[in-house]
C-alpha cells in the first residue's frame, strides 16, 4: 500500500511532463519544419524540452496541495499557449516570435484579416492533452497530495540541472558558437527548446531596451560635431559619375584578399576576378571591419557607414532602430532596391532588418528552386544562385540598387567533386585545403553572373561592386596558412588577413587602376553616394575613398587600426609596410580618435540616436 502510494505520487508530475513533451516534439517535427542534419541533432531536438518541463511543472509542488491542481493546469495551459502562438507565427512568417517582434505593432497589422486563415481545424488537438490533464486533476481527482521535502527538492533540481547541462553540452558540441552567436532562431529552438529560447530573447531585449530608454537627443549633437569636424570633401572627379545607372553589389562570402592573383599548384585561384580587375578600380588595401555579426556586420557597415557592435550582431539586437541606410536614400532618388540571398529569410534577422534599411524586396530561399542536385554545404550553389537571380533582375524596375550575397564559399568549404575546378591543397589544415577550390568555384559563379547580365542586356547600364564580406580562414586553422607561406602568422599578419578584395567595375570606364590606400567597408556608403551624385548628409563614419583630402585611418572592431604608416594591434605598434615593431609614440596620436569613434558609433546604435535626428 505504502509502495503504491509512493509510486503514484510522482504519477501526475511525470504524466503531465510526458504529455507536454510528446506534444512539443510533435510540433517541432510537424509545424516548425526544422532542418535535421545529423542523428545527434535529432536526439537533441527530442530531449531539449525535458529540463524546462521538469522545472516548470515541478513548481506545482512548491504550492500547498489545495492550490496544486490549479497551478498544474495553469502551467500546462500557459506552456501550450506559448507553443501555439509560435505555431501561428511560424505559419505566417516561417519564424519564431521575438520580443522586438511582439512589440512591433506593424507586424501584427500585417497579419490582420489573414489571422483566421492561420487556424486549422486540427489545432484543437494541441489542447487535447490539456483536457486530459484537467480531467485527471478534477474528474479523476488523481493524487497530488505529496510535498517535496527539502532533500527531495534538492535532488529534483539536481536532476533538472543535469538534464539541462547535458542538453547544452550536446548543443555546444554541434554548434560551438551557439551562445555567442544567437542570431539564428531555428538553431536556438532546435538546440535549447522553445522556452529557453524565449527566456534568452527576453533577457537580451530588456538589456538593450534599457540602454535605449536612457538615451536622449543631446548625445547626438556631440557626435554630429565630431563627424563634421572629421568630414572630407568628396572627390569632384567621381561625383555623379554613375548617376542613374543600376548598382549591383556582390558580397563574396569569406573571400580573403590574398586569393587575388594567387596561384596554387600552378593554377590561378580567381582567374575571372584577376581579369576583371584589369578593367576595374581595384582596392588592394581594403579591410573587412566586421565583429561577431560576420556577414550581417559587413552589410551593416556597407549600408550605414556605422561600426558593427562589440558583441553580437546589430542586425539581431537593433533591427528596429531608426537608420538612414543607402537603400532608403537611393529610394528617394527613384531607385528600386532588392537583396538576393538563397538562405532562410530569418538568418541574421534579415527579414526584419531589410525593412528598417529601406529595402523594397528580399529574394530569399523561397524565391529559388533548391533541390538535391543544386545544393551543397549551406544551400543553393552559387552558380545556380546567380543563374536564377538574373531573370528577377531582368524583370526589375530600373534603375535598381541590389545586392547578391554568395554562400558556397562558407566554412567548412564543401564542394561536389564535379565543381572542383582546382585540386584541394595539401597543408596540415583540411579547412585551408578545401578553401581554395570553393573560392575558385565562386569565381566561376561571378563569371557566370556577368555573362548572364550581358545576355540579358543589363550589363552596360550597371555598375558592379564586388567585395569580400570577411576572412575565410579562422585563426584555429592558421597552421595551414603557415604551411603555405612557410612562416609564422603574427598578430600583424592577422590584421592584414582581414583584407578582402574590393572591385568597382564600371562598364565603359577608362581610368581603371589599382588603389593602394588603406580603406574599409565603412567607406563604401559615402563613396557610392558621391559616385551616384547623391549628397551624403548623414552621420557616416566612413569617407569617400576617392577624396584627395582623405587621410587613411581604418579602424577594426577590436580596436586595431591601420594607416598608411602604422598598424596597431593588441597593444603593439608596427610599421604598416615592413611589419616591424616600432615605438608606441607612432601609434599614440590615433589611439584616442579610434576609441572615440567606436564609442560614438556604439552610442548611436545602443541609444537608437538617429531617431532624434530630425528633432
Ligand atoms: C548566411 C550567410 C553566412 O546567410 O550570410 O553568414 P556568416 O556565417 O558568414 O556570417
Ligand atoms: Mn559571411
TrEMBL record:
Q: Which Pfam families match?
A: Sulfatase
Location comes to: Cell membrane
Q: Which residues bind Mn(2+)?
A: 253, 295, 469-470
> Keywords for this entry?
Cell membrane, Manganese, Membrane, Metal-binding, Transferase, Transmembrane, Transmembrane helix
| Topology within the bilayer | Multi-pass membrane protein
Q: Which GO terms describe its molecular function?
A: metal ion binding; transferase activity
Task: Say if the entry is tagged with keyword rRNA-binding.
Answer: no
Query: What main location does UniProt list?
Result: membrane
Report what the Swiss-Prot or TrEMBL entry states about this protein's PTMs: The conversion to 3-oxoalanine (also known as C-formylglycine, FGly), of a serine or cysteine residue in prokaryotes and of a cysteine residue in eukaryotes, is critical for catalytic activity.
Residues bearing 3-oxoalanine (Ser)?
A: 65
Positions that bind substrate: 410
Its cellular-component GO annotations read: plasma membrane
Stored InterPro entries: Alkaline_phosphatase_core_sf (IPR017850), LtaS-like (IPR012160), OpgB/LTA_synthase_biosynth (IPR050448), Sulfatase_N (IPR000917)
Family label: Belongs to the LTA synthase family.
Q: What is this protein called?
A: Phosphoglycerol transferase MdoB-like AlkP superfamily enzyme
Amino acid at each position: 500500500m505504502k509502495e503504491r502510494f509512493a509510486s503514484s505520487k510522482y504519477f501526475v508530475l511525470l504524466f503531465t511532463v510526458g504529455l507536454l513533451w510528446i506534444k512539443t516534439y510533435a510540433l517541432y517535427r510537424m509545424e516548425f519544419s526544422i532542418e535535421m542534419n545529423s542523428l545527434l541533432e535529432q536526439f537533441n531536438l527530442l530531449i531539449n524540452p525535458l529540463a524546462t518541463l521538469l522545472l516548470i511543472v515541478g513548481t506545482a509542488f512548491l504550492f500547498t496541495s489545495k492550490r496544486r491542481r490549479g497551478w498544474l493546469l495553469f502551467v500546462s495551459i500557459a506552456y501550450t499557449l506559448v507553443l501555439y502562438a509560435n505555431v501561428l507565427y511560424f505559419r505566417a512568417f516561417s519564424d519564431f516570435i521575438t520580443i522586438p517582434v511582439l512589440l512591433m505593432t506593424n507586424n501584427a497589422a500585417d497579419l490582420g484579416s489573414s489571422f483566421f486563415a492561420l487556424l486549422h481545424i486540427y489545432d484543437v488537438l494541441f489542447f487535447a492533452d490539456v483536457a486530459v490533464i484537467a480531467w485527471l486533476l478534477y474528474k479523476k481527482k488523481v493524487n497530488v497530495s505529496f510535498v517535496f521535502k527539502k532533500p527531495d527538492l534538492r535532488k529534483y533540481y539536481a536532476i533538472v540541472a543535469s538534464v539541462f547541462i547535458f542538453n547544452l553540452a550536446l548543443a555546444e558540441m554541434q554548434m560551438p558558437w551557439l551562445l555567442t552567436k544567437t542570431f539564428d532562431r531555428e538553431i536556438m529552438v532546435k538546440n535549447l527548446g522553445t522556452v529557453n529560447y524565449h527566456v534568452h530573447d527576453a533577457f537580451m531585449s530588456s538589456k538593450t531596451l534599457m540602454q535605449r530608454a536612457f538615451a536622449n537627443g543631446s548625445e547626438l549633437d556631440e557626435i554630429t560635431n565630431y563627424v563634421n569636424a572629421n568630414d572630407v570633401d568628396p572627390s569632384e572627379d567621381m561625383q555623379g559619375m554613375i548617376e542613374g545607372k543600376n548598382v549591383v553589389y556582390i558580397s563574396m562570402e569569406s573571400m580573403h584578399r590574398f586569393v587575388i592573383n594567387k596561384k596554387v599548384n600552378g593554377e590561378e585561384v580567381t582567374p575571372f576576378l584577376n581579369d576583371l580587375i584589369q578593367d576595374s578600380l581595384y582596392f588592394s588595401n581594403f579591410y573587412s571591419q566586421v565583429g561577431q555579426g560576420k556577414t550581417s556586420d559587413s552589410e551593416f557597415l556597407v549600408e550605414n557607414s556605422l561600426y558593427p557592435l562589440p558583441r553580437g550582431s546589430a542586425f539581431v539586437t537593433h533591427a528596429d532602430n531608426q537608420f538612414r541606410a543607402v537603400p532608403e536614400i537611393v529610394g528617394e532618388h527613384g531607385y528600386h532596391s532588392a537583396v538576393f540571398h538563397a538562405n532562410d529569410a530569418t538568418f541574421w534577422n534579415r527579414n526584419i532588418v531589410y525593412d528598417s534599411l529601406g529595402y523594397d524586396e528580399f529574394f530569399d530561399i523561397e524565391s529559388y528552386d533548391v533541390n538535391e542536385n543544386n545544393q551543397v554545404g549551406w544551400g543553393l550553389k552559387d552558380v545556380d544562385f546567380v543563374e536564377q537571380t538574373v531573370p528577377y533582375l531582368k524583370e526589375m524596375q530600373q534603375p535598381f540598387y541590389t545586392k547578391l550575397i554568395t554562400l558556397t564559399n562558407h566554412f567548412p568549404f564543401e564542394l561536389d567533386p564535379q565543381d572542383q575546378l582546382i585540386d584541394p591543397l595539401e597543408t596540415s589544415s583540411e579547412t585551408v585545403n578545401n578553401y581554395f577550390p570553393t573560392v575558385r568555384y565562386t569565381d566561376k559563379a561571378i563569371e557566370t553572373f556577368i555573362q548572364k547580365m550581358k545576355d540579358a542586356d543589363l550589363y552596360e547600364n550597371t555598375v558592379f561592386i564586388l567585395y569580400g564580406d570577411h576572412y575565410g580562414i579562422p585563426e584555429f586553422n592558421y597552421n595551414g596558412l603557415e604551411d603555405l607561406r612557410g612562416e609564422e602568422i603574427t598578430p600583424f599578419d592577422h590584421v592584414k588577413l582581414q583584407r578582402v578584395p574590393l572591385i568597382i567595375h564600371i562598364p565603359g570606364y577608362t581610368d581603371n587602376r589599382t588603389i593602394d590606400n588603406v580603406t574599409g567597408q565603412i567607406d563604401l556608403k559615402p563613396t557610392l553616394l558621391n559616385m551616384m551624385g547623391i549628397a551624403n548628409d548623414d552621420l557616416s563614419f566612413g569617407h569617400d575613398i576617392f577624396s584627395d583630402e582623405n587621410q587613411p585611418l581604418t579602424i577594426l572592431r577590436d580596436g586595431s587600426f591601420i594607416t598608411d604608416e602604422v598598424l596597431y594591434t593588441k597593444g603593439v605598434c608596427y610599421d604598416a609596410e615592413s611589419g616591424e615593431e616600432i615605438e608606441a609614440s607612432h601609434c599614440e596620436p590615433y589611439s584616442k580618435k579610434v576609441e572615440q569613434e567606436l564609442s560614438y558609433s556604439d552610442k548611436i546604435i545602443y541609444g537608437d540616436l538617429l531617431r532624434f535626428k530630425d528633432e
